């Protein structure tokens, strides 16, 4: 199994890249999606959140009111730690299950927006960073996703810088141009199975020796 960590700033094109990799046959684990699944209605994750934060974080249909919860944890570090303590272990458990269920020969792509911020690079054979200039990302988030520009800019400011991500990348994907350009680049990388990097060779040697 080749474990690929996929990251990039908000709106850089992670989902665009991971969808293409999935078409090629990669097993994609989307950490944002898992973070929503573990607090979906009926889960014990949601039950614990309500126990900790009260019924006020529930929408009328019984699902989690993310805006209400964000309002609580935004300015309260202890509340944020409590929330993370509920969500993170569940996401980690699901991730472990999905990794374990992937066929031995598969390429597993783990889409983690905060991979660099959380120092997770050593967990992967290959870290793939998708990048696009900040102004282009803001344009895409505002036009394609309807995000208010101030929100887009403050989310970008709260994340690692492009330089920090580039320093962590084994493979760097430029998504500043048209979508087709980055998709062709993904196809090329896949054709070489994302290239046997030094780290992978090192690991193969370790396996052979072991
Ligand atoms: P997030 O961090 O919010 O999960 P992301 O990194 O997964 O975002 P995408 O959702 O793939 O990024 O892309 C952000 C937006 O920009 C989407 O609406 C997507 O369709 C659009 N987009 C991605 N790549 C391009 C491109 N090369 N040209 C134009 N629009 C693009």
From TrEMBL:
Subcellular location: Cytoplasm
Catalytic activity annotation: 3'-dephospho-CoA + ATP = ADP + CoA + H(+)
Keywords linked to the UniProt accession: ATP-binding, Coenzyme A biosynthesis, Cytoplasm, Kinase, Nucleotide-binding, Transferase
Binding-site list for ATP: 11-16
GO molecular function terms noted in the UniProt entry: dephospho-CoA kinase activity
Pathway as given in its UniProt record: Cofactor biosynthesis; coenzyme A biosynthesis; CoA from (R)-pantothenate: step 5/5
Enzyme class: transferase
Family, similarity comment: In the N-terminal section; belongs to the CoaE family. In the C-terminal section; belongs to the UPF0157 (GrpB) family.
Main function: Catalyzes the phosphorylation of the 3'-hydroxyl group of dephosphocoenzyme A to form coenzyme A.
Protein name, UniProt field: Dephospho-CoA kinase
Lineage per the UniProt record: Bacteria, Bacillati, Actinomycetota, Actinomycetes, Pseudonocardiales
């Amino acid at each position: 199994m080749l474990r690929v960590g996929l990251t990039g700033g908000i709106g850089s094109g992670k989902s665009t890249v991971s969808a293409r990799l999935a078409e090629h046959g990669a097993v994609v684990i989307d950490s944002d999606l898992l973070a929503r699944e573990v607090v979906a209605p009926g889960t014990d994750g949601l039950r614990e959140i309500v126990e900790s934060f009260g019924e006020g974080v529930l929408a009328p249909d019984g699902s989690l009111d993310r805006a209400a919860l964000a309002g609580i944890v935004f300015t309260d570090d202890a509340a944020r730690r409590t929330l993370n303590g509920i969500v993170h272990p569940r996401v980690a458990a699901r991730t472990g299950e999905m990794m374990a269920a992937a066929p031995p020969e598969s390429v597993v792509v783990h889409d983690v927006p905060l991979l660099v911020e959380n120092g997770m690079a050593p967990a992967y054979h290959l870290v793939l960073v998708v990048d696009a200039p900040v102004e282009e990302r803001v344009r895409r988030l505002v036009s394609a996703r309807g995000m208010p520009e101030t929100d887009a800019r403050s989310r970008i400011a709260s994340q690692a810088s492009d330089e920090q991500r580039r320093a962590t990348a084994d493979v760097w994907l430029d998504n500043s141009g048209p979508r087709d350009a980055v998709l062709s680049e993904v196809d090329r990388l896949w054709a070489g199975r994302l290239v046997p990097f030094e780290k992978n060779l090192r690991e193969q040697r370790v396996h052979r020796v072991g």
